[in-house]
Amino acid sequence: MVESAGIGELRSARLGYRRVRHDDLDLFASFLADEEATRYLIVPRAHTRPEAAALLDRWVAQHDGTIGMYTVLDSSDVVGWSGYVRRALRWGDELELGWSIRREHWGKGYATEAALALRPLGPERVVHLIHPENLRSIHVAERLGAELERRTTLRGNPVSVYVSPREAPPG
What is the DSSP string of 73-111? Predict the structure, then answer.
């Protein structure tokens, strides 16, 4: 459950969430430059700082109410980013709930906690676009109660499309 801690701030058990901001660029660019951390992204390669800045600019501009990307914090430490991105896909427009956790924070359950906290903010249908070899993200999607809907390719790369209900199953 996400609780409001003020305008634009949300909290779950261990984590805080705030809208992405331009001053996130240094850590975001560092994350996107990490080949290991980016190998399962839709564009699975290290990204340049200008590419990171362009993506961050889009995320800042596209934030609409509770729908958008959030910087995920453990106290004041940025652990990653999670939230909603609008996607124009071959079969129609979708809203994706995704998560990207900085490598030094992998294995702590932050992606699952963030996804579970932010999922109720979205509409009934939300997709998760996951590389079929990204077992950690598939596990997060399954914790949300997501089911595999289809397999496809995006930008020439394999993607499994999972769809989750608004409320995750108990446990």
Answer: EETTEEEEEEEEEEEEETTEEEEEEEEEE-GGGTTSSHH
Name the nearest CA neighbour of 140 among 103, 102, 80, 97. 97
The answer regarding whether domain 3-164 maps to CATH 3.40.630.30 reads: yes
**Residue 108 pLDDT class (50, 70, 90 cuts):** very high
Task: Give the residue among 100, 97, 101, 70 at the shortest CA–CA distance from 85.
Answer: 97
Q: Are strands 92-101 and 69-74 parallel, antiparallel or unpaired?
A: unpaired
Alpha carbon distance 139, 86 (integer Å): 22
Helix axes 49-62, 25-32, angle to 10 degrees: 120
**Tens-digit pLDDT profile for residues 155-171:** 999 999 999 988 877 76
**How many contiguous H segments (helices) and E segments (strands) does the chain have?**
5, 9
Tokens 């070899």 correspond to 133
